[in-house]
Amino acid sequence: MKKYILPLSIFALLHFKSAGQNLSPTEQKIVQYINAQMPQSEELLKKVVNINSGTLNHEGVREVGAVFRKEFDDLGFQTEWISLPDSLNRAGHLVAERKGKSGKKLFLIGHLDTVFEKAMSFTPYTYLNDSTVTGQGVNDMKGGDVVLISALKSLKANGLLDNTSLTVYFTGDEESSGKPASVSRKDFIERAKACEIALAFETAVGMNTVATARRGASGWRLNVKGIMGHSSTIFSQQAGYGAIFEAARILNEFREKKLSGEKVPYFQSGFNYGWF
Ligand SMILES: [Zn+2]
Asked: What is the pLDDT of residues 243-276, one digit of tens each?
């Protein structure tokens, strides 16, 4: 979601902390499997980080998509590449689905692109110290994509993917969406509507925290009408309060009734979910 370029995307390699947490035996097995697979997960991350996939580098975005697609194929998902019309100048999206009747229908969100375009100087996957790595998209959000895949691998290994209904959607143009969005997000929206719960794997609030809601973005137009006249007649019975006052009144009403004091709910997971 970041629309600015970080000088360095820092990605901390963190291991699960299960001590002191009340995890069920099954949950402990899930964590153990993920920890045991950490070297393979890091290899996967390194591989995709070292492929430049700036939003406009179609080839790179598709290549990252192909690497992840193989992971989902191996997990038994039905995978599909969603192409977009040439006029949008975007690579397309990766979708992986499995259908079942057990549990809620989940929509798991990631993205393949980064803000680092091919023309920029390339930063390969590099250790800054024994626990921190830098590289293009290590955090936002190839790290999140690998967290998602690691979690699914562990669920499969523990027999917990059976009969579940999951749609994984990795967009190829999250950092700069193809316009119009009604075209670039059409398939995404349709599939999301068929699901019940959406989980995004990009860092929102910070480490060790799961955000349960975020501010969204919307566009809208406020039309107000007033009687045209000289400013000296404002507030008179004949001219009324004017269009500007009315627009300000409505906006202030939004502020007072809806927006002020608005808080983004989140909870501390108390659980290092691998990588953020
Ligand atoms: Zn992102």
From this structure: 999 999 999 998 998 788 776 555 554 433 333 2
How many whole angstroms from 146 Cα to the centroid of ligand 1?
13
Q: How far is the CA of 130 from the centre of ligand 1 (A)?
A: 25
**Span from the CA of 249 to the centroid of ligand 1 (angstroms):** 36
Q: How far is the CA of 214 from the centre of ligand 1 (A)?
A: 14
Q: How many Å lie between the centroid of ligand 1 and the Cα of residue 108?
A: 14
**Are the C-beta atoms of 9 and 137 separated by less than 8 Å?**
yes
163-207 pLDDT, tens per residue? 999 999 999 999 999 999 999 999 999 999 999 999 999 987 777
Model-level pTM? 0.77
Interaxial angle between packed helices 58-74 and 38-49, expressed in degrees from 0 to 180 and rounded to the nearest 10: 160
Q: How far is the CA of 202 from the centre of ligand 1 (A)?
A: 6
Neighbours of ion ligand 1 (CB under 5 A): 140-141, 202
Q: Are the C-beta atoms of residues 137 and 16 closer than 8 Å to each other?
A: no
Q: Distance, CA 141 to ligand 1 centroid (Å)?
A: 5
Distances (CA, A) of 276 to 58, 91, 130, 204: 25, 25, 17, 9
* Helices 58-74 & 142-157 angle (0-180, nearest 10): 10
